[in-house]
Amino acid sequence: MGLAVAVGRLADLNVHDPEGAEWLRESLSKVNEVLAEKGLPQHKEPEQLPSMQSRTAIATYSYSFLHHLRRFYARATNAPDWIPTPTPEGEDPAQDPVLDEEMYMMSSHLLCHSDCEGFYLPIKFDEVIVDREGWRGDLAISNRGVDEKNQGRVFGGLLGSSYRLMDKLLSITPKLGIELDRGRLTDAQAQRIDEDSQSNKGLWIEKTVWLSLFEAARLSIEFKTAICFT
User: Fold this and answer.
1) Which residues of the chain have pLDDT under 70?
2) What is the spatial distance between Cα 16 and Cα 153, in angstroms, rounded to a whole number?
3) How many angstroms separate the CA atoms of 117 and 21, rounded?
4) pLDDT score, position 147
5) pTM above 0.85, yes or no
6) Domain range annotation of the chain
């Protein structure tokens, strides 16, 4: 099993799994309760969508892959002069002390989100949303989100913005060696990233995750559909 990053999930479930679609509607209705409490707009997930073309060849990968990109982001943000390097062999990127420090600042929609479930919404809000309803005692936040024993209304406990996720991804493109054309990722550059992702060399893991999240955020914003981690 691994992390699947999906958009247009409700529209797909309406066709292939009506019971799953009803479950997702109920989940998103609880998310909307949290948004209302924060004074934010409601999210209306599209029931139908046109064909959406993602330019990533890999949208499902090991849960650990996400931590490689998070470590990269934390180090690139914390030390602008840092020379980009992959996680050293034998080290766990989730245990990187710089990542740990940046994550507990709760300032990044890339870092502060469960690595296995939950949503990013096409709504602009700056602070990562934490659903505190039902928590007993202190909120236990880790690299996997909020302590699953105290699951609230938001799967994974933390709710992110697709817009803010996109901002964080764009901020590290120079360090990843990703070239943008007037702020846009061209089809040719997306293809090159895909080729790098399949090379198993250098920063291939970081680029694999970056492209999957970038494409999800792009489609989420364009089609007003939630990004679902499953």
Assistant:
1) 133-151
2) 25
3) 16
4) 46
5) yes
6) 3-229
